[in-house]
Specification:
Layout lengths: L4 H9 L2 H16 L5 E2 L11 H12 L15 H15 L8 E4 L1 H13 L5 E5 L5 H8 L3 E5 L9 H7 L4 E7 L11 H18 L4 E5 L22 E6 L12 E5 L6 H14 L7 H7 L9 H17 L12 E2 L8 H10 L2 E2 L1 E2 L9 E4 L4 H17 L5
Parallel strand pairs: 1-10, 3-4, 3-5, 5-6, 6-7
Antiparallel strand pairs: 2-8, 7-8, 9-12, 11-12
Length: 396
């Protein structure tokens, strides 16, 4: 058998997100796309801002010499400096271009960071509910992922976090706004996390790195000011992408930024730059680095996502579902009417409504909805949710 046993096992386990996406394709072939209501995949539905197309056209019509050649593995210095200036303004930390490495999306950035930090057997703590690829990313680099449970409102359980840290803990992953819950970690929560990490660093005599995955940082609602993890812990690294706030998911462009006061900051940046090369990324896409350099203040229509959030939340609550109102991203994470979220997902499939069971995010008993979909899809799904709610007598 040519495939490694470890890879075969991982493929069989798979990702519930992708499994449901593939199932959606099958159902659309069977029933027609207009009759299937697929809420499984967080694929940005909005087109990029007009400024993106304008800049892309400008670069295509008047390319600089060497536009498509290799550049330093960390990326174009000009792009890194623009990003650093924006971070310095937002976070009031002394970022420079030397703290930034351009990457192939946030997923590429996380793999680069793990390659730079992890020795075999080092532990990566993952806060449930979590983006399931974190587990695979840790395994890619010999790390051991350990899941920390959540408490009310999908906030991390700080007592459980404290107990989960061992001398082998190297990284804590933080994702806020959160995929799958859509919730934002509060300032108080982030201070608590930082206190737990500081205590562990004192006990064990080494840094515990906070890796903050922030692709949804610009998709927050109701005028909320987003609390930022890097303001609470110096041994921290921000990873993000332009996939969601500019709808450039397929272009695979993002970056990592190491906290300017992180211990051994230059060595860590150098290690990330080297990892970018030896992992085969080599560098982030050249053309996209040039494009996003001019788009730092651009966003998709966040108000449209908020309207989708409101329609979904109000529709589900009206039919008896229990859920927290999402504060950011474009996901909702309702409680399943029955304990078995996979069985409930199958009931929804009878209505040709496709969601992702919470077990795939470390939160059995819930299910994830992506409302980054066409309005007609959301309308059809709400009708299906209502019919299933009647079966479970959720509606008074």
């Amino acid at each position: 058998m040519p495939v490694a046993a470890r890879m075969r096992q991982a493929m069989e386990a798979g990702s519930w997100i992708r499994q449901m996406f593939e199932l959606g394709i099958q159902l659309k072939r069977q029933h027609g796309e207009q009759n299937v209501f697929d809420l499984s995949l967080g694929n940005p539905i909005l087109e990029p801002p007009a400024a993106f197309r304008a800049e892309l056209k400008r670069l295509a019509e008047d390319p600089a010499t060497g536009t498509h050649r290799y550049m330093p593995n960390a990326g174009y210095p000009e792009t890194r400096q623009v990003i650093a200036a924006k971070l310095a303004k937002e976070l009031r930390l002394p970022f420079t271009g030397q703290h930034v490495v351009m990457t192939c999306g946030a997923g590429g950035a996380i793999n680069v960071v793990f390659k730079a930090l992890l020795d075999p057997g080092d532990e990566v703590l993952v806060l449930a509910p979590y983006f399931p690829e974190y587990l695979g990313y840790a395994d890619n680099h010999g790390g051991v992922a350990r899941v920390v449970p959540f408490t009310e409102g999908f906030q991390p359980d700080l007592d459980a976090l404290r107990k989960a840290i061992t001398p082998r803990t190297k990284v804590l992953m933080v994702n806020s706004p959160n995929n799958p819950s859509g919730m934002v970690y509060s300032e108080e929560c982030l201070r608590g996390i930082a206190g737990v990490l500081a205590g562990a660093e004192t006990r064990f005599g080494h840094s515990v790195y906070l890796v903050s995955d922030e692709p949804y940082a610009n998709l927050v609602y109701d005028g909320m000011a987003l609390p930022r993890p890097l303001l609470h812990h110096q041994a921290s690294i921000l990873v993000t992408s332009y996939s969601k706030d500019l709808s450039l998911a397929g272009e695979r462009i993002g970056y990592l930024a190491v906290h300017p006061s992180c211990p051994d900051v230059q060595e860590l940046v150098d290690a990330c730059t080297y990892a970018n090369r030896v992992l085969g990324f080599v560098n982030a896409p050249a053309l996209m680095q040039r494009v996003v350099r001019t788009l730092q203040e651009q966003r998709v229509d966040v108000a449209w996502y908020q309207r989708q959030r409101d329609r979904l939340y109000e529709g589900l609550r009206a039919t008896g579902y229990m859920l927290h109102k999402p504060e950011g991203a474009f996901y909702a994470f309702p409680k399943s009417p029955i304990p078995d979220d996979v069985a409930f997902m199958k009931e929804l499939l009878e209505e040709r409504v496709i969601v992702t069971p919470g077990v795939g995010f470390g939160a059995p008993g819930y299910f994830r909805i992506s409302y980054s979909v066409e309005e007609r899809v959301l309308d059809g799904a709400l009708e299906g949710f209502a019919r299933v709610a009647k079966q479970h007598k959720l509606i008074p």
